[in-house]
Amino acid sequence: MSVNKVILIGNVGKDPDVRYLDSGVAVATFSLATTDRAYTLANGTQVPERTEWHNIVLWRGLAQTAEKYVRKGDRLYIEGKIRSRSYDDQNGIKRTIVEIFADNMEMLTPRSASQPQAQAAPAPQQPTQQPVGGNPSDDLPF
Description:
single chain; 142 residues; globular; 5-stranded mixed β-barrel; two-stranded antiparallel sheet; mainly beta; CATH 2.40.50.140
């Protein structure tokens, strides 16, 4: 048995880049930063803050949701699988890229905080977390 599961909570590094395949399927890509805080060891050694950047890939309904609502700086919860792929760059050098294929995404930034002031909606009375399923059947109207 094996398990390939990644859970990330971090900040969006750039607005999602959304493309549509010939079949009409949406694909969104963006970077997500996760940061470990700085700390001091018992012996006085200072360990600096460390930021990791992750390449996130969303498909179908999740990609369309990201296109509408996700913006640079937003805080997200991402759950998915880690995948790697290789390609040859322009100079013939083999490159490997690691991506997180998200199955689930939750927006942790309140909507009013991520919208410009002129377009901000009144504060919702319910919790601001908005679960969004990554299952293609979630797109069905029933």
